[in-house]
Specification:
By secondary structure, the protein is an alpha+beta fold. It has a single domain, classed as Gcn5-related N-acetyltransferase (GNAT) (Aminopeptidase, 3-Layer(aba) Sandwich). 37% of the residues lie in helices and 27% in strands. It is built from four helices and seven strands, in the order βααβββαβαββ. It has a seven-stranded mixed β-sheet with strand order 1-2-3-4-5-7-6. A hairpin with a 3-residue loop joins strand 6 and strand 7. Helix 1 crosses helix 2. The chain starts with 9 loop residues before the first strand and ends in a 7-residue tail after the last strand.
């Protein structure tokens, strides 16, 4: 499933399996997640690139774009019983400006139209958890490093 545009100014082109798109997605991850990864493990370039390539092959990646600016990435996967949101990275220059909330709300509305809950995960020590809780996500599980969350269907009013 593609992600439709979010008027008035955000688009979500699907990233292709070409070096420029793969590298762009990796740089978005490094910029957004690097500080949180370094905090726990340090940055192992080869490991992180291999992990990124594995994830890139497993799921669709979409660019978050505003005019000529490439703001970050998001993955939106539809399964029979839920939507999986992931690889949601904004470059630091575009964080804390409401863009992440707009993209998240847009994806949640798409999931509601599909009548599916939304699941995601994040590193325990990443402060992004407050954004997800603010948008109705609740914790459904944990691992040593990840918090697993779900946002149930919103009640639809006629």
């Amino acid at each position: 499933m593609d992600i439709p545009d979010l008027p008035p100014d955000l688009t979500f082109p699907k990233l292709r399996t070409i070096p420029d798109d793969i590298d762009f997605a990796f740089e978005a991850k490094r910029a957004a997640m690097g500080p949180h990864i370094v905090q726990r493990w340090g940055w192992d370039e080869e490991f992180q690139r291999d992990l990124h390539l594995q994830r890139y092959q497993e799921k669709p990646f979409f660019e978050i774009r505003k005019a000529e600016h490439r703001l970050g990435t998001v993955s939106f996967q539809v399964f029979p019983d839920h939507v999986r949101l992931g690889e949601f990275y904004l470059f630091p220059d575009f964080q804390k400006k409401g863009i992440g909330s707009r993209v998240l709300e847009h994806c949640l509305l798409l999931a509601d139209k599909l009548v599916l809950p939304v699941r995601l995960e994040y590193l325990h020590w990443n402060p992004v958890g407050s954004l997800y809780r603010h948008h109705g996500f609740v914790e459904i599980g944990q691992s040593d490093i990840h918090c697993f969350m779900e946002r149930s269907l919103r009640e639809r009013t006629p």
